[in-house]
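[Automated response] Your request has been received and processed.

Submitted sequence:
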Amino acid sequence: MRLPRIPFFVAAVWFPCLLAPGAAQQSAAAPKAQAREVVLPVTASNKHGETVPGLTASDFTLTDNGTQQTIASFTQAGSLSLQVGILVDTSEAVIRSLDDERKAAENFVDLMLPATPSGAKGGDQAFLIHFDREVELIEDFTDSRSRLDSDLQQMGSTPAAQNSPGPETTGSGRQTRVRGGGADLYDAIYLASHDVMKPGQGRKALVIFSQGTDLGSRESINDAIDAAERAHTIVFTIYFKGDEEPLRLGRGGVGDTYPDTYPYPGGYPGGYPGGYPGGYPGGIPTGGSTGVSPINGKKNLADIATRTGGRAFEVKRIDELAGIYNQIAEELHGQYLLTYTPNPFEADGSFHKTVLTAKKGDLTVTVPEGYYAPDGK
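Generated structure:
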């Protein structure tokens, strides 16, 4: 039996990356952030890929739009609540691996949530989305392992009969997004970030299992990443090639392609005229002209992860999936929170690029590439 479709909704709490006057109070385990203070999630790992405990602010240097900053605090995330969204590609390209994905995702849920809801520490919760031609929120925020495990077992591809353009509305007035064509990856990230994560409080992360191609989203890759950054959500991606080669399909449908310099010539935040945010004027170029190569799903997912401060993984054999989920859980549990007050402070709504550098050469640091300043003083 297919699960009923549940709407994307507005959650009740929010943990801002840049705190404005009057912001909600944080958990006692979080650094005490003042007005205009930036809070960034940080993961540090050694050359073996293991998270490194016991680091302090003195181990790093930080710049904001190229200007050296003073790190106010650098602490283990501790018991600060964690909100996790699990996004699963259920398109035909990966459907043969869905059973393995279910099992691995169930193990991940078990690592992230307590055996009983009453054992939840700091309000940790997770939600589940699947996407193919439809983006469907199967389970909203819950601290129940059993509910998520049951949802994962029943999760499957959207029947072809439901492939109709535009949003579908259930009898209760709830909406999900339905598109024609295939895996709506960008819509899934956008809706998970903007509709589910953005109003929430605490640390936030999305974990995406996908082939990395997008065959019909309304939103672009820039829209999706922008939504994640504005929601202060890091994105872990797990690339699995599946049963098909990369396709010459992109945002908008058949005929849409990316230049062979994809994802962005010149790198972030330059690239196409106008740079990121904003992307290519008028959208991504279309047509099958020379110099255009197929979408590279692996690059696509790596770009999303890097720019949001997450990590990109690749599954070459499906039996590696459980180990990758375990590694993501370890990184989330070993996460740090960095706080600082930007100097100078600019309340202009612009995107600020942050660069965190470890003084020890054997450390690898993962952190969001920046944040949006508040709009107005």
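Summary generated for your ticket: The longest helix spans residues 98-112. The two ends are 53 Å apart (CA to CA).
If you did not submit this request, please reply to this message.
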